Amino acid sequence: MNSIWAIGLVAALLSPPDVSAVDGYVSSYRAEAGYPGVAVAITKGDQVITAKGYGHDSSGAPVTEHTKMAIASVSKSFTALAVRQLADAGELDLDRPVRTYLPDFEVADPRGERITVRHLLNHTSGITDRTLPEKSLPQPNTPAEAVQRARQATLAADPGVQNRYTNTNYHVAGRLVEVVSGENFNAYLKKHIFEPLGMNETVAIDVTPRDLPSDYREGHVYAYGVSVAAAEPHRFVAGSDGVISTAADMARWLAAQQALAPRDGLGWTADERGSLRHSGIWFTGTAGQLLTKSGYGIAVMTNSGVGFGNEGTSGLEDGIADLLDGAVPPEPSSPRLAIDLVLAALTLSSLGLTIRALRRPRRFHKAWQVVRFVPLGVLVALPAMTGLLYGGGRDITFFQLAHYSLPLVVWLGVSSVMNIGVAVVRWRR
């Protein structure tokens, strides 16, 4: 067990929760998970306990409580609040069809007329990444264009029946805010949420990486134990995952949740502990927020993207929550390096087996050489397979997949080339 973390843990168990215990745990977790930089905000009720940074950004500068970082899909909680504000003001009804307020909204399914505002916010519209692959399709530039793109969507189920997470729901919700309020969506967030809460370092954007603020530093992708600075792939993020914030501002956001936390959980998810939370993943950063039953608010942001062994920050949030509640958190650990080393070994093995096959040719029936094209088939199908097996049907492009796990793509790529080479040589012989 890391000695710094162990000392902090003992202190936490023998006295009321303190920042030093959290410091030790976060530092240990950051090292184990391979996060270059982490920012954390903690509140108790409406009081801020701490907001600080750990590690460094992609320029080498220390991460502080004022370092701008992506909160990714945690942004959906802000979009849900914007819609809730309009509902509380009597400007819209959550249970009326979206087309009541947004006549341009329609999908390629007659059931789409029954999609309500609430269906968008709790991901039960029937739209999924399978019925509208929002990352693979050409990216819109504005919420209005996102609504036009949604005309291609079919429905996987009747509205209100199945919960299927997709960014498209919140793209449409962002446009709904614009039409009902008469204000640009990002401007609405600034005027009605960021500024009233004193979140003066927080901004919302439409498209990555084009609209990222000048003082935002690139996040990282991880491969073979090394974190490499990289730009976030081109994506439309308004309404779904386009908020850029700081630990200081997220502390203000968490402190306000005593009054703002949605009565029906819209924009949040209840976990098995009875806490409210929402995670966020970019290909170059991860984030999460947690409201515990004991009254703590925790927000975490990292500048390391989603990938094998790094599916989000929930483990870090839960560990911090355990410390604050006087419980023993799990020892920080991460399989990221082990996974990549296994993939590296498979890559080297593919090279070695191919060299051996070419140096010691044996005669096989040509039909069996077709098997050597299997790695290529897997490589081509990998984006769809990853979305189905890992994301529950989420959409991902091949370029984004390389951000998710470059070692996996390299292994399959090398194996494909080597196997095809052997097959061609043996066919010619």
- What's the structural domain tally? 2
**Helix/sheet category:** alpha+beta
Structural shape: globular
CATH class category name of the largest domain: Alpha Beta
Lateral strand order in the biggest sheet? 2-1-13-12-11-10
Q: Major β-sheet, in short?
A: 6 strands, antiparallel
What is the number of beta strands? Answer: 13
Helix fraction by DSSP (H/I, runs of at least 4): 40-55%
Task: Outline the fold blueprint.
Blueprint: H1 3-14, H2 19-33, E1 37-44, E2 47-55, E3 69-70, H3 75-88, H4 117-121, H5 143-149, H6 167-181, H7 185-194, E4 203-204, E5 207-208, E6 219-223, E7 226-230, E8 235-236, E9 243-245, H8 247-255, H9 257-260, E10 269-270, E11 276-281, E12 286-291, E13 296-302, H10 314-324, H11 336-359, H12 374-389, H13 398-404, H14 406-428
Antiparallel strand pairs: 1-2, 1-13, 3-9, 4-9, 5-8, 6-7, 10-11, 11-12, 12-13
Helix pairs in contact: 1-2, 2-10, 3-6, 3-7, 5-6, 11-14, 12-14, 13-14
What does this structure look like?
This protein has 429 residues and is α+β, with helices and mostly antiparallel strands. It folds into 2 domains: 1-333, Beta-lactamase, CATH 3.40.710.10; 336-428. The protein has 14 helices and 13 strands. The protein has a 6-stranded antiparallel sheet with strand order 2-1-13-12-11-10, sandwiched between helices. Helix 3 (75-88) packs parallel to helix 6, helix 5 (143-149) crosses helix 6 and helix 13 packs across helix 14. It is globular. The mean pLDDT is 91.
